[in-house]
Amino acid sequence: MAYQPNNIFARILEGEIPCEKVYEDDYALAFRDINPKAPVHVLVIPKGEYTTLDEFAGAAPAELMAGFFRAFAEVVALLGIAESGYRTIVNTGRDGGQEVAHLHFHVLAGRPIGRMVGRE
Ligand code: 5GP
After folding, report:
1. Which CATH number fits domain 8-109: 3.40.640.10, 3.90.170.10, 3.90.1170.50, 3.30.428.10?
2. 100 lines ligand 1 (CB under 6 A)
3. Are 109 and 40 in contact (CB under 8 A)?
4. What is the pTM of this model?
């Protein structure tokens, strides 16, 4: 999927749109979802122009990939959810229900999140 540079998360990365920041470093930004689906609902996004996880995994420089996943670990530690657990969701494309065309990892926690996926 071609990256759309004007997507809302790109604008958050540029500082054009505010966010409730949880963590930031050279590789990633984490912020609270504007429409939380659980007591903890954070989005972790890489600092790179990738729309999907397969594009990121297939093409991102190793330093960015490692940095992103290290940042993910920092976010989980900061949120204090490693012990209680959490759900990670990466929606991709049409059938995956992706609304924002910049790769993002949802981190949901703070209550039992339920079993796997629903059908709407
Ligand atoms: P997707 O369906 O693409 O996986 O999820 C997009 C997520 O981004 C949704 O959970 C939605 O609530 C969140 N979102 C959309 N616009 C904004 C925004 O401007 N700020 C924040 N913090 N979250 C947003």
Report:
1. 3.30.428.10
2. yes
3. yes
4. 0.96
Torsion of CA 43, 27, 100, 49, to 10 degrees: -170
Decide: helix, strand or coil at residue 40: strand
Q: Where are the domains positioned within the chain?
A: 8-109
CA distance 18 to 8: 10
Report the share of the chain in percent with pLDDT over 70.
Answer: 97
Q: Does 104 participate in catalysis according to the annotation? A: yes
Q: Would you give the DSSP letter of residue 68? A: H
pLDDT by residue (tens digit) across 34-50? Answer: 999 999 999 999 999 99
Please indicate whether residue 8, judged by its CB atom, sits closer than 6 Å to ligand 1.
yes
